[in-house]
Amino acid sequence: MPELLRPERPVGIVGYGAYVPRYRLPAKEIARIWTQGRGGLPIEEKAVPGLDEDTITISIEAARNALARAGIDAELLRAVWVGSESHPYAVKPSSTIVAEALGATPFTQAGDWEFACKAGTEAMVAAFGLIGSGMADYALAIGADTAQGRPGDALEYTAAAGGAAFIIGPAEESLAVLLGTLSYVTDTPDFWRRAQQPYPEHGMRFTGEPAYFQHIGSAARAFLEATNTTPQDYTYAIFHQPNAKFPQRIAKQLGFTPEQIAPGLVVPTVGNTYSGSAILGLTATLDVAKPGDRILVVSFGSGAGSDAMAFEVTDLIEERRALAPATQDYIRRRTEIDYATYVRWRGKLVLK
Amino acid sequence: MDDIVITGIGFTPVGEHWEVSLRELATDAALKAMQESGGLRPQAVYVANQYAPVLSRQANVGVLVADFIGLHDVEAATVEAGGASGMMALRAAYLAVASGEADVALALGVEKSTDRVGPDVETALSVVLDADYEAEHGLTPAAQAALLMQRYIHEYNAERAAFAAFPVLAHRNAVGNPAAMFRRAIKESTYHRATMLSDPLNLFDAAPLADGAAAVLVARRSVLPPEMPQPLVRIAGFGIANDTLALHDRDDPLDFAAVRSSVESACKRANCSLEEVDFFELYDAFSIYVPLILEAAGFAPRGEGWKMGQDGSLELDGKLPILTMGGLKARGNPGGATGLYQVAEAVMQLRGQAGDNQIPNARRALVQSLSGPASLAATTILEPAP
Amino acid sequence: MDISRHWRNRKQRYRLVGEVCPHCGAKLFPPRDVCPHCGMEAKTVETLVGTGTVYAFTTVRQAPSDFAEQSPYVVALISLDDGPMLTAQLTDLGDVEPYVGMRVEMVTRKLRNADDERGLIIYGYKFRPVLERALA
Ligand SMILES: [Zn+2]
Fold first, then answer.
1. Going by C-beta distance under 8 Å and a sequence separation of 6 or more, which residues neighbour residue C14?
2. CB atoms A102 and C111 under 8 Å
3. ipTM surpasses 0.95
4. Do C58 and B133 lie within an 8 Å CB cutoff?
5. How many domains does chain A contain in total?
């Protein structure tokens, strides 16, 4: 039985922030183009970034929201880590730009993380270690993406943009204290994108059982066992949400109720924000959580792996919640666009 | 003090001269001005140009032009002050002869805007803005004028339709100017149908960038022979004032403060009042500039300059004719040359050579060029030499 | 490539780092080192709050080549609550019609691609309608 990862010094989330772009592309609009509107739709609509948005700008706004809730000076951040599979530069860190925009430079770590859809939780776990070891007091972990699917591909319906940011710090300053974390990783080629290719390849039905369900299920079960807890010990749970169906099915398989996953299930109206996916569910859940609530989060990244982690919400949530926009504030702000606008904005038109 | 006089003017037609180069345009204008002056040769040449470094990949235009008009061993330099470049070249020539450093000086303006076409031209035009804090945010000179226009309409409840009066007037006056780019009158309905450039500013609210060259030869009266080929026009005074380069740095963007102070100091130097000005060649790069200039100069109360377009007072037979040969809008706006076209047109009026557009008994001209939204206002007052 | 020009301005561009005049207290943006209000030296760094009101706006329909791929876009003069006025694009308008007096807040966005897709991405301030919040 694997042992739980737990820091020497108790840590938690001091501030959190979300960001979802304004524009929405309904799944039925994609279906209009590619299937004459026939067939089932994996979600209602997905968030599409504006022409001037990318992983860096999404990260900046989510992080500003996290800083506002944490109420700390950006200069106190000793790490700015941005997890994404859509870093705007192939070579040049997103994190230095984000750090500069926040005012966290120059005495800070900065690094970009990549692990398909779980780069954000990967950065969080590293931050738990950095703070938990006593090396630093605050670290910023971000997961954000502006994911692309090949036009007409199943992924195009869900590949969305958004992100979430967390300032990890000492437990006594936290609005949610970390109970522990555990990761489960294998070499499973369910989804990949080669360098310089604009769109990813995926294993279609292979992405389900051997990938998503195997990794999330294994990580979650190991975590419950290692913590000697059951689904009933958690008020809420969030599982990586690539579409509406998968997180609901894995929740049921593990014994969680629809009510437990409801606040964090943002995928039907946001889409799969990849590195932001599970943790955008976490920000939406923190927006409604009460002191004493326990929240389980299990991310999934293709390739493949899952990070399971759980938090217990503290009294500080009440005073910090309103210091920045709620996840639902961004979701409520929506302007629908058509497929042609989407094609232009997402760089799918040949201009040169 | 000795009078500083304009002995000759010369200019090319304004338009798209695809087949003619920067140097050829300049040479044409310079030779005409020198010919009008009975062959006087300048010891100093100041060449106004705005865009040659970006549009024609040519800097050091002053030396180029002096060289190609056959002037060697003379002082030659480029003058650049945005849209006021031409007027500032005249200023340099004026100072050179007034100081006694030269007896005769040539102010020449030249622009070859058709050396490039398309969005690159918009990029070039934006170099007059604050590069880091205006142009880098996508602002263009037209967009900047549109911001002023929108705010003006908002603040003063001015009628949007009333702005038609200025381009309509400019086009009507250009009919009588053989050198104008657009020698045809336009209807108000044409104005209202024009393509939107930058809401609420449309194509007819913006003067077209064009090719052209204009030259003005100046000298101290005392060095001239008693008989000159053309009637002399005296530079009675200059007034030049700057404001912030960026529009956003103004406390009150709708106040063209530099216009006011440059007009006041020009009048003071020329020892005249605004009431004694017979016509006003103003800088109508955008239609919104017209009311803002009229107000700041003191011809209209704040917020009411737009009404002067409605009551006929700006027509050739009105109490303050403006844009008498078509202005920037219809004569065309050849960048660095524009100020010298304005001066040359005023000289024609004062000499009584304005043809169909002649203002009866024109004895005093107010001529003013601006760079940007009056970031610099350069004003001169011209009179027939006694 | 004009890397250094953009790099030099990163603090102003990314997060509205301006100045405050130590003599008269005026906030300055863009930073200009000599206070336009009292004429004294003003080099004290101060980050502005980033909220303001639209003074005027326009939709640019003939964009310079650097901005062609964004055309049409909206540029505005914004009166910042801190005092200074600045020029910036309005973004995230969606179906919202901007208006004179509209309340806006600063966001950091891509201003443009320098040169082409091989060049630097230039980030900087833009303003958007203030996000409506259920709590707050
Ligand atoms: Zn001061």
1. A60, A97, A100, A101, C108, C123, C124, C125
2. no
3. yes
4. no
5. 2
